[in-house]
């Protein structure tokens, strides 16, 4: 296919929520039930290039392979949204690759759609400020709204439904200057999860009797978390993050039928985190829609925490992350 526009290339990093997004109030617009708060990482980036082409269909290359099925459809649907906003009809060539594992609860969809939103908006000449880009990324994957920004980021639930909800549900950075924690990522399974977060969220909100109580407590967790970040109080940040994540998993476990992302290896790591705390090391766990565990601690303690987790056995591999940057456009070439 002939190239008709410049190539826009972007890089975006995953983020890990310290107060989770779990449940949508509007599935089409990706409006969340509650606000959430995350830390953008400096590992596992997604690099994506988008160029407008003169051809009959979008071409999508994902991790070096031509994408098909649901993966391709999800990207195409997102490009359709970008084209609708831009008033354009041409197809695109998308080349995207993840430095980290895909679909393993390691926020590949967050970095993925933040990178795609950034590159696609540029390729289709949509002039969006970061807030509008965050709202756009949200439509690919809710958590992607937060990966538009670096550091500590809050994603507002927004007010109202429809257009009002869409306008008011965006992410923004919240400071936390002077806080420089580490997040030790303990990967116990690189495979793609059996149940997508989208399906699991839908089932949880619809059937778990624990969902409403968790959502109500999560609103309070978010307010407390913002205070703890402003106070640069890492132990309190860790305590809130750990209880919020365990509560989210309680809502999944009590869906009908129950959904369980935690594996025996996840539990072994949770036990190790408790043992580290008993030894006076401030380490706190958070877990997303997968069995991998992320452990929040100080930069100084990270080598010890990383070595302790890596020493558990062959079933675990570790990577230590720190605060990472905002999504960015790297090149635009003719
Ligand atoms: O945006 P999604 O569909 O990848 O959902 C993210 C859900 C969690 O990772 C479990 C929580 C979060 O806030 O990132």
UniProtKB/TrEMBL annotation:
Family affiliation: Belongs to the diphosphomevalonate decarboxylase family.
UniProt entry tagged with the keyword Cell division: no
One of the record's GO cellular component terms: cytosol
Swiss-Prot/TrEMBL keywords: ATP-binding, Lipid biosynthesis, Lipid metabolism, Lyase, Nucleotide-binding
Descriptive protein name: diphosphomevalonate decarboxylase
A GO biological process held by the record: isopentenyl diphosphate biosynthetic process, mevalonate pathway
Enzyme Commission code: 4.1.1.33
Segment forming the signal sequence: none
Cross-referenced InterPro entries: GHMP_kinase_C_sf, Mev_decarb, Mev_diP_decarb, MVD-like_N, Mvd1_C, Ribosomal_Su5_D2-typ_SF, Ribsml_uS5_D2-typ_fold_subgr
Residues covered by the Diphosphomevalonate decarboxylase-like N-terminal domain: 12-166
Gene3D superfamilies according to UniProt: 3.30.230.10, GHMP kinase, C-terminal domain
GO molecular function terms noted in the UniProt entry: ATP binding; diphosphomevalonate decarboxylase activity
Residue intervals of the Mvd1 C-terminal domain: 184-310
